[in-house]
Amino acid sequence: MIKMFVVNGKRYTAKEFDFNLLCDLEEQGLSLSDMDKKPMSLIRTYLAFCGDITKQEAGVELEKHFINGGKVDEITEIMSSMMNESGFFRAMGETIEEEDTETSVQNQKRGRKAQATTEA
Questions:
Q1: In angstroms, rounded to a whole number, what is the distance separating the alpha carbons of residues 88 and 94?
Q2: Which tops the pLDDT comparison, 10 or 38?
Q3: What CA–CA distance (Å, rounded) separates 47 from 79?
Q4: What would the mean pLDDT of 74-79 be, rounded to a whole number?
């Protein structure tokens, strides 16, 4: 099923969160693990990707959309839906979570070793 969303009176076809989109996001400085820290950049990049327009053009469209009373809800709901439906995106998210968990466990072990050394 093709999903659409409207920004500034223009209809856009929602695109899947695939490898190319993740590369575009990384080029923007948006890693998978910190997308929630830069939501407006994520929205602008997604609109640019879906509309085959530049980031600057997407920013102008979003700004006009907000000035004219438009909300961010529709595009964020579409993005969330596309993320949930993307097998590639889900697989990448699981890989990132596993790496974060492994890093956390390793840091905890290092902390315990350092504490044991200072206590000795």
A1: 10
A2: 10
A3: 10
A4: 91
CA distance 56 to 99: 34
Look at residues 40, 12, 19 and name the one whose alpha carbon lies nearest to residue 87. 19
Contact 16, 86 (CB under 8 A): yes
Rounded distance between C-alpha atoms, residue 85 and residue 1, angstroms: 11
* Residue the block writes with tokens 């890989």: 95
Averaged pLDDT, 4-31? 87
Domain count along the chain? 1
Tell me which residue range forms the domain holding 91.
4-119
Q: What is the pLDDT of residue 107?
A: 54
Assigned token pair, 54:
């530049």
10 Å CB burial of residue 52 (0-12, 13-18, 19+) is exposed
The amino acid at 10: K
Instruction: List strand residue ranges (DSSP E) for 4-84, in order.
Output: 4-7, 10-13
Contact 23, 88 (CB under 8 A): no
pTM above 0.85, yes or no: no
